[in-house]
Amino acid sequence: MHEINAGDGHKSKSSSSFAIEVLPNLDSALKHLRLADRARVLWVDAICINQPDEEEKKREVWRMGDIYRAARRVVVFLGPETSCSTLAIKTLSHLGHQVIMDWANWKLGKAPGRRRDWSKSSCILPYDETKWRAINSMLNLEWFQRLWIWQEILSARTAILVWGNSIMSWWHFRRAIACLQGNEKSELPGALATPQFRENLRRVDDLVARHEKQKQNVLDLLHRSRTSLCEISKDRIYAIMNIPSPTFYRHTTRIEPDYGKSDLEVYRQFALGNIRFHSLNLLEYAFVPFNRPRDENWPSWVPDWSNPPVYKRALSGHAGGRMKSEFTYCAVDHTLTVPGVYCGTIKYVGDPVHISSTREEILAKIHLWEPSDLFDADYPSGGKLIDAFVATMIAGGHGSRRAGQSDRAKAIQAGHRVLKYATHDVSIDSTEMEWDLAYLRFLDQFVPGQAFFRTEEDHIGLAHPHALPGDQIFLIVGCHILKVLRQKPTPQGNRYSIIGTSCLQGFMNGEALLGKMPENWDVREGRGLRDMRGLYFVNTVTGESTRMDPRLSSVYPGWVSRVDDYAGLMWRNEDDNKEWDLYDPRLSTEALKSRGVNVVDIRVA
């Protein structure tokens, strides 16, 4: 700890002055940021909030987001001068000036007046080993690893990065990181060509990409900040919940900072508020911890944010559509009763792929997963088992959904070649190398931390590595993904425990609720309809594109719909004249039951 003198800035005998202790990094920052010729007004949380005073801390934590939003400028001090700080700032600042970024549509482009297009993924960046090492040193700085910086920087109207005597704008830094993340051709020096460099880059990219308001979903922020460091586990919630809006979550989750509560009390209160006012999509983050036993006193539906997930979620984000939360909470035993639709019972689970597996290890494990009838059997929901297996390895084809039908067919063909090459020593076709490499990248993204399974109904999928034979796959109404549940008989009746997420081939596009897609209709995601992002449907014969699912009527009695550029399809009840709603009334429990869907109550403990 260092000691600094604090006071009112005047030298009169009557002025008050006192000493406070600060950490070395803050001591260095204050010395770097002070001006030689005039006073400078700074707000520093470590000084302006009395940290030992829990009551003051409770009040001020609520205000911090407002303070950063109101600040004329946020100054990020990364540390004192080093041998590479000037080079790193200069290199990334120059890169940030070469490109422009359309964050709403995630499109990187060439900055006006630049002759060379640095934005292309195929552009080889002209950096020697010294520059790459300087960039790596910057990405490794402690500031980027801290949790509270998410609120500080994402709430800022304008910000600068200061490292020693070098300065660059936050906006140019964001562009530079987006360019690095999208670059595929530049070769890193041997010492940096490691997963750790890419992981550092991903962590920083997660931060810079969340600055757009439409991307500030609190659950997504909680997930993306999961590896950031904090001393108090409750801060996982307190540091993030006020980012999306200064009042939004204050009004909806009914949660205020209280460091006297246990982690479970805080997380359960947040979970209930989020479910009550938003949706059951929070259950996507509820799963058995991968690296320690589950606490039996911890309800399985309450995500434990204090334990960052060490496995990747199986992406099945459109299995249920936009359904409003329908649930009953019992405060006595802290159980949650939710409506659900049964999708299958697991009969076989393969050995899981470790989260840090290499590509060679992934391919070897997939070979062991191959069913004995892989090349001969038909798949229950249509097509051949081999095609379903190839799609399952990239989370049910989720990774290729942004491609058109012909490109998606090429992705599946690439999967055939890759798996054949990996298991039967046949070389990859060089003429289709780009598609083969793309499929391999999908495997790297989706397979680690997952286990292959087959159900009693002979459907196949990927699931949480702790899934066991006898576990059941359910679609919970109000949650857009499939969950693996384990039944637990109790004296009070059957209870279910959430094991984790799942993708199940043949159930990835709402089939559990609405049945198979009509002939000639395809599901797409990304830019396509009116240049907007999100889920939409394409008639492959007529070329018609629509937000309306062709399995559902375009109208619903008493309701009107419209399309929002960012939110997609929205609905409003004409009778009560309330605000537009994200949730589709055609997918309510009542509407589903009227369609003949077997919706059952599930009590989750």
Query: What about the largest sheet?
Result: 6 strands, antiparallel, barrel
> Taking Cα atoms only, what radius of gyration do you get, to the nearest Å?
26 Å
Morphology call: globular
> What's the rounded overall pLDDT mean?
84
Distance between the termini: 46 Å
Which structural class do the helices and strands define?
A: alpha+beta
- What share of the residues does DSSP label as strand, in percent? 15-25%
Which ranges are low-confidence, i.e. pLDDT below 50, for 5 or more consecutive residues? 7-14, 246-251, 528-532
| Annotation, overall tally of beta strands | 20
What share of residues is helical? 25-40%
Strand order of the largest sheet: 9-10-11-14-13-12
| Total helical segments | 18
Key features?
three-stranded mixed β-sheet, six-stranded antiparallel β-barrel, alpha+beta, 605 residues
